[in-house]
Design brief:
The chain has helices at 83-90, 138-149, 175-181; strands at 2-8, 13-18, 23-26, 31-38, 41-46, 49-53, 108-115, 122-128, 155-162. By secondary structure, the protein is α+β, with helices and mostly antiparallel strands. It has two domains: 2-61, SH3 type barrels, CATH 2.30.30; 83-181, Fe-S cluster assembly (FSCA) (GMP Synthetase, Chain A, domain 3, 2-Layer Sandwich). The radius of gyration is 17 Å and the shape is globular. The two termini are 20 Å apart.
Length: 184
């Protein structure tokens, strides 16, 4: 959802600067313009630049936190996570500069669920890329993906690895993504 709303932070929040991906503390009272709300996070602009604020801090900008993900009911102890629930969470991850999720952009190359014999539980491994090697948001996008995967019942560990092989290109975008971007 794209919009612009003016807000003032009611408390201090840790935000991710765009495009560097660096964590910054925005103090209470900072005036913001909310430009985009996608995947449960907010892309905002202040006098200090462009930032992404996580959904867990929604109330600090006068918004409501996103509802729990579909399928977020408690998992049966030891049960493997539902791969479709993992994919659903990955579809909630967005590059803050592109209004299409990382799955439909064709950035996710693989997703595997594996039992963790030493720790019990299950781990999820994801290999993904970015639209350009110079994208400074790569670590922040990968961290967002990891945090959303960890919300899936039955997942006790997640690893999101950025790879450049094969290089990404526009033909990897899904039909839905191409429609959102006006490419078809």
């Amino acid at each position: 959802m794209t919009m612009t709303k003016e807000r003032t932070l009611s408390r201090e929040v840790v935000a991710t600067q765009i495009p560097s991906g660096e964590k910054q503390i925005l103090p209470a009272g900072t005036r913001l313009a909310i430009h985009q709300t996608l995947g449960g996070s907010f892309t905002v602009q202040s006098d200090f630049g462009l930032f992404r604020i996580d959904g867990r801090d929604a109330e600090a900008i006068g918004e409501k936190a996103a509802a729990a993900p579909a399928g977020a009911q408690a998992a049966v102890k030891g049960a493997a996570p539902d791969p479709e629930a993992v994919w659903a969470q990955l579809r909630q991850v967005f590059d803050p500069e592109i209004p299409v999720n990382i799955v439909d952009l064709g950035l996710v190359y693989s997703m595997d669920v594996a039992a963790l014999p030493d720790e019990g539980g299950h781990g999820v491994n994801v290999a993904m890329t970015l639209t350009a090697p110079g994208c400074g948001m790569g670590p922040a996008i990968a961290e967002d993906a990891k945090n959303k995967i960890l919300l899936v019942p039955g997942v006790s560990a997640a690893d999101v690895r950025i790879t450049w092989d094969p290089p990404w290109n526009q033909s990897m975008i899904s039909e839905e993504g191409k429609m959102k971007l006006g490419l078809i």
